[in-house]
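Changelog-linked ticket: magnesium ion example.
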Amino acid sequence: MQTLSIIVPCYNEESVIEACYARIKSAINKLDMKSQIIFINDGSYDRTDSILSSIADADSQVTVIGFSRNFGHQAAVCAGINHCRSDIAIIIDADLQDPPELIPDLIRHKEETQANVVYCVRKTRTGENRFKLWSAKFFYRTLNRLSEVKFPLDTGDFRLIDSKVIHEFNSLKERGKYIRGLISWVGFKQVPFYYEREIRYAGKTKYPLRKMIFFGSNALLYFSKKPLQIAISLGFTVMLIGVLMAIWYIFGRIFGYTNAESGWTSIMIAIIFFGGIQLLTIGVLGQYIGILFDEVKERPEYIIEKIQNENNG
Ligand code: UDP
Ligand code: MG
């Protein structure tokens, strides 16, 4: 019999956990598979921990991985994949924006298409504000243009992966994992599955603008070296302008068609302009060095404080 793990990252989700558990449970009960639900408690400080504990006490199908502090959404999903021993895993958010009722459909779709990854593409996204929709669209299109790997648009982490992909994912050594990017990068047969994204069942989003910018820029830095190439092109362009200006002014002095002494404005503009470009370029470079710094330290991506019902996979 095939085995299935449902991976659910949770951060301060006391208002949704019980509904989430009930809906996932009723979806997997319809399947003829040995199933397990892995909840990752990502350092929540509300009642998430105690609710998850009592769910796991009552149901041996539920594994709870508790982090020592908040390590972030991607680290939580990563811990779930690392602990998954099943043939198939499905990553799903706790807030019920991705309906658990689709789990059987995803599995059927995987069987019909013989795919290794079924990624869920949002047809609509009710309840998200215009800014989030617009910025997400802009971000993914830019990322695709700059990145060496092509990512499907309008997808989140809601997806099905099989044991081949799980195995490859678990052998990746980089720490700053941008999960949806890495799963695309791994390859094999990946097919889309279209669905309607719902509104958050309860509670607040854990991705305020600041975190979204960080998440986005990290994805870009991990998957593209283009910003460095853009910095070089910028440097070349500015150098060319400098050379042309030098020629113009030198000849101007010789032939007397410029009055260089009165050039205060142009000097100031040049200083500010070049200064800005230099800082920008150093900044881009610094971002990559920052990533190297983090990776070189080889700190773990997360620290587990406790695991409940560990061996039920
Ligand atoms: N999450 C997490 N750690 C965090 C932030 C979020 O485990 O530091 C979980 C959260 O509980 C939810 C999922 O990641 O299950 C997606 O977060 P959210 O719904 O807040 O993001 P949005 O859908 O608004 O982008
Ligand atoms: Mg959400």
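Closing comment: Example verified and attached. Strands lie at 3-10, 34-41, 62-67, 88-91, 117-125, 155-162, 190-197, 304-308. Residues 3-224+300-312 form a domain with the Spore Coat Polysaccharide Biosynthesis Protein SpsA; Chain A fold (CATH 3.90.550.10).
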